[in-house]
UniProtKB/TrEMBL annotation:
The keyword Metal-binding applies. InterPro entries: HD, Homeodomain-like_sf, Lhx3/4-like_LIM2, LIM_Homeobox_TF, Znf_LIM. One of its GO terms (molecular function) is DNA-binding transcription factor activity, RNA polymerase II-specific. The gene is Lhx4. GO terms for cellular component: nucleus. GO terms for biological process: neuron differentiation. This is LHX4 protein. Keywords: DNA-binding, Homeobox, LIM domain, Metal-binding, Nucleus, Repeat, Zinc. Gene3D superfamilies: Cysteine Rich Protein, Homeodomain-like. The keyword S-adenosyl-L-methionine does not apply. It is found in: Nucleus. Residues 73-121 form the Homeobox domain. The lineage of its organism: Eukaryota, Metazoa, Chordata, Craniata, Vertebrata. Residues 5-68 form the LIM zinc-binding domain. Residues 96-121 are annotated as: Disordered.
Length: 121
């Protein structure tokens, strides 16, 4: 029990008489050889992705997740437009103090109506 083969998914021991599935150096019970997203049991010949920690993802779920990540990465926030009055206020403040303290930046943010991040940048 202590030194025998363990299932990568459930970490339970695997008796030598039990049928198993293998993916590279990882060993699984038949019922544990399934996708972590949709829980579909993978069969011989199914295409899947093996994560570094030994978790399995079926090809369909992997590609769906990849598409979602790609679409989120491409969605940028809109560019901030600064008016002449806001720019003048920021220039004067940064001329007086090139590295204003947090409370000064907060005050500039409320005066100009710009986000704190925009004031800091």
């Amino acid at each position: 029990r202590r030194f025998g083969t363990k299932c990568t998914a459930c970490q339970q021991g695997i008796p030598p008489t039990q049928v198993v599935r293998k993916a590279q150096d990882f060993v699984y019970h038949l019922h544990c050889f399934s996708c972590i997203i949709c829980s579909r049991q993978l069969a011989t010949g199914d295409e899947f992705y093996l994560m570094e920690d030994g978790r399995l993802v079926c090809k369909e779920d992997y590609e769906t997740a990849k598409q979602n990540d790609d679409s989120e990465a491409g969605a940028k926030r809109p560019r901030t437009t600064i008016t002449a009055k806001q720019l003048e206020t920021l220039k004067n403040a940064y001329k007086n103090s090139p590295k204003p303290a947090r409370h000064v930046r907060e005050q500039l943010s409320s005066e100009t109506g710009l986000d704190m991040r925009v004031v800091q940048v």
